[in-house]
Amino acid sequence: MSKKPVRIGVVGYGFMGRTHSNAYSQLEHFFETDHVPVKQVICGRSEDKVKAFAEQWGYADTETDWRELVKRDDIDAIDICTPNNSHYDIALAAIENGKMILCEKPLALNGEQGLKMVEAIEAAGLPNLVWYNYRFLPAVTLAKQIVARGDLGRIYHYRANFLQDWTMSEELPQGGAALWRLDAATAGSGVTGDLLAHNIDCARWINGDIISVSAMTETFIKERVHQETGEVHPVTIDDACAFLARFENGSTAIFESTRYARGHKALKTFEINGHHKSLSWDLHDLNRLAYFDHDVPGETRGWSSIHVSDGDHPYTGNWWVPGLCLGYEHSFVHGAVEFMKSLDNPSAEKAYPDFRNALGTQYVCDAVLESAKTGQWVEVKKA
C-alpha cells in the first residue's frame, strides 16, 4: 500500500527543532505506519541559519515568517518549536488555515490561552499533539501499563522531582534567544511550566487527574540584566517550586523542581507506592524501571531492576536487539509514531497528549502558581 505523506512545516530551528527533525528522519526506518512525515519546510527568523538547517536536515524549502508558512498549500501540519509566548498566535493562525498541529509544551502561557486553543482546534476537527515526550520512553510507558493493569493495587503516594543547576550564576542574563526561559513575559513561568509540567503530565497520565494543590515558589536572584535592553530588570519567574497534591483516586503527591540544585543537570524521577507494589524511575538511568513486589517471599523480597529493552516491552522491539539501550531522542520518534498511527486509524484511542489533555496539565500549573501566591490550597479546573 502506498504511503500517505504528511508534509510538515516546523517553526523554530533550535534545540526542539533538532529533536523533532530527527524524529521525522528516523520514523520510517524503524516503524511501519501508513502516514509518514515529510520534512517540507523549516521556518526561522535568520535566513542564513534556516537555510543551513534545511540543508543539514533535508527540508525541501525554508521560510522566515511563520505567518507565510501557515498559509502554504504544500503544508499539512505545523510543528511549533518556539518559545511559549508564541504558541497561541501560531496555533490559531494554523487552525484558521486548516493545518494539523504538533506543539511543544507547555500548551500556552496559561489556561486562558490554552482553552481558546482547545476550543478552536476541536471546532475545526484538526488532529493535534503536544510534545510531552517523556511519557514515550519505554520504561515510563511500561510503568503506565503496570499501573493501568491494577498490579500496584490501591495507589497511596506519587512523588516526583526535576532538578537542575544551570541558572545559579548572578551574572547570567535573562531574555533573548538563548535565555528566554528566564523571562516571564516569554516563558509564562519558570520551573513550573518548564520542568514541573513534564512531571505533571506523566503523573496525570499514569495516576489520573490532580484535583487540588498547595504550593510554594522562590526566586533566589531577584534582578538580572535583560539581553534585549541591556538594563537590569526584576526576575519574575519561579527559580524553584515545590507542591503537595491530591489525586482524584485519593492518593497524595509531592512534586519539587529547581534550577538551584548544585550538581544536578537533569535529575528527573518519579516513584509510585501502591498497596502491593511500588515503581520508581530515574531519567539518568532511563532504560530501567525499579520494581518492588511485596508478594515475593520475605527472604528474597526487595527492589528489582527491569531493563526495559526486550522485544515485548513498549517500542523497543522496533529498535535493536534485547539489552541495548535507547535514549532521550527516541521519545520524540515514538511521539511522532503515535501521531501518525492516529492518522492511520482516527477512531482509535489516542496514545499521546492532545491539546485538551495538555490543557489539564496547564490548569495544574496555573493552580500551583496561584497557590504559591495566596498560600492556600487551590482546586484544579477540569479540562
Distance between the termini: 39 Å
Arithmetic mean of pLDDT? 97
Question: Which structural class do you get from the secondary structure elements?
Answer: alpha/beta
Structurally, how many domains make up the residues? 2
Brief overview, please?
This protein has 383 residues and is of the alpha/beta class.
Structural topology:
Blueprint: E1 4-11, H1 15-30, E2 35-43, H2 47-57, E3 61-63, H3 66-69, E4 77-80, H4 87-96, E5 100-103, H5 111-124, E6 128-130, H6 138-148, E7 155-163, H7 184-187, H8 191-207, E8 210-218, E9 223-225, E10 232-234, E11 240-247, E12 252-258, E13 267-274, E14 277-282, E15 288-293, E16 304-307, H9 328-344, H10 355-374, E17 378-379
Parallel strand pairs: 1-2, 1-4, 2-3, 4-5, 5-6, 7-12
Antiparallel strand pairs: 7-13, 8-11, 8-17, 9-10, 11-12, 13-14, 14-15, 15-16
Helix pairs in contact: 1-9, 4-5, 5-10, 6-8, 8-10
Give the tags.
nine-stranded mixed sheet; alpha/beta; globular; Dihydrodipicolinate Reductase, domain 2; Rossmann fold; single chain; 17 strands; 2 domains
Give an account of the 3D structure.
The protein is an alpha/beta fold and 383 residues long. The protein has two domains: 4-133, NAD(P)-binding Rossmann-like Domain (Rossmann fold, 3-Layer(aba) Sandwich), CATH 3.40.50; 136-379, Dihydrodipicolinate Reductase, domain 2, CATH 3.30.360. It has ten helices and 17 strands. The chain has helices at 15-30, 47-57, 66-69, 87-96, 111-124, 138-148, 184-187, 191-207, 328-344, 355-374; strands spanning 4-11, 35-43, 61-63, 77-80, 100-103, 128-130, 155-163, 210-218, 223-225, 232-234, 240-247, 252-258, 267-274, 277-282, 288-293, 304-307, 378-379. The strands form three sheets. The chain has a nine-stranded mixed β-sheet with strand order 16-15-14-13-7-12-11-8-17. A six-stranded parallel β-sheet has the order 3-2-1-4-5-6, with helices on both faces. Strand 5 (100-103), helix 5 and strand 6 (128-130) form a beta-alpha-beta unit. The longest helix has 20 residues, at 355-374. The relative contact order is 0.16.
